Amino acid sequence: MRALNELKDRIEVVAAVDVVHDRVEAFSKENGIPSFYLDASEMLEKVQPDLVHIATPPNIHYPLIIQSLQAGASVFCEKPLCTSLAELDRIASVEQQTGKYCSSVFQWRFGSKGQHFKQLIQEDVLGHPLVGICQTTWFRNAAYYEVPWRGKWSTEGGGPTMGHGIHAMDLFLWLLGEWDEVSAFTDTLDRAIEVEDVSLAMVRFKNRALGSIVNSVLSPREETYLRFDFQKASVELTGLYGYTNENWRFTQPKGQESEAVLARWDELALNTPSSHKTQLSQLLDSLDQKKRPLSSTPDIRPTLEFLTAIYKSAATRQIVQQGSIVAGDPFYDHVSGIRQQGS
């Protein structure tokens, strides 16, 4: 709502939907929303919105996305967009049928420094990528998992791999490019939950760069940390739930400093945070221009496939290749794969 209110010259919030009457009524009054509903179908029929923002528990995302697209609305959905590659491919199919778009909230891609870094990589300013680190070490206590839908495969869809580290991993993959193979471990070490509370993965990219990934909800000193070692520089990002330009650090090899490379890194004047507002603004631009928005289904499929590969590698103790999880594979139907079936 903060993001929507900051863009009220471009967008009007016309309705809210929740299954709890008192909650949605209070939310609507608090935010000046003119109408509220207890049923999404009724809202879609009566309001006919241009855009639906979905912020429900993960297992409800997919049916609401399909319903909204088929009703003629585009969708801006919180992560994870869905809990399987099968669902994502179905969403893409419905997009084609309806001419509407579904965009995932991956706001870390949209900060000005992240976008600038992406441009430098594409222009080969820093040389070849070599080594990467992606670390989401957060803390969620037992009370956090007392919320009924959390910590369960059927409703949350996964642990920190799906629900917490997904933002950093999406940025990591988006910057370093197409991944090739992954080997991973997951475990439930300390929380009384079905899903994992920690995961570790090693990834090889098609450009031969190697990466290390850690996701945890067991870490009292919370931090999100990404590091990218290129031939001509190391680039680091340290934060928690987002970043501005000040969260980035740039280091060149001693004795091999290049003023030209440093100048390219420092040339950015814009300082836009990685926020819902930043992404939503670009989404509105795309919809105004009748173009597919950034971070929609084809853009984010490599990320969901990578998360699925982490779970499959951990369950099977095998290296998983990109493109190998297809229809007929239980992991195609749910990220937990065979574990969803009780194995």
Automatic annotation (TrEMBL):
Domain Gfo/Idh/MocA-like oxidoreductase N-terminal: 2-103
GO MF annotations in UniProt: nucleotide binding
SUPFAM superfamilies: Glyceraldehyde-3-phosphate dehydrogenase-like, C-terminal domain, NAD(P)-binding Rossmann-fold domains
Pfam families, per database record: GFO_IDH_MocA (PF01408), GFO_IDH_MocA_C3 (PF22725)
Transmembrane segments: none
PANTHER family the UniProt entry points to: D-GLUCOSIDE 3-DEHYDROGENASE, UDP-N-ACETYL-2-AMINO-2-DEOXY-D-GLUCURONATE OXIDASE
Protein name per Swiss-Prot or TrEMBL: Oxidoreductase
Listed InterPro entries: Gfo/Idh/MocA-like_OxRdtase_N (IPR000683), Gfo/Idh/MocA_Oxidoreductase (IPR052515), GFO_IDH_MocA-like_dom (IPR055170), NAD(P)-bd_dom_sf (IPR036291)
Domain GFO/IDH/MocA-like oxidoreductase: from-to ranges: 116-234
Superkingdom of origin organism: Bacteria
Gene3D superfamilies xrefs: Dihydrodipicolinate Reductase, domain 2 (3.30.360.10), NAD(P)-binding Rossmann-like Domain (3.40.50.720)
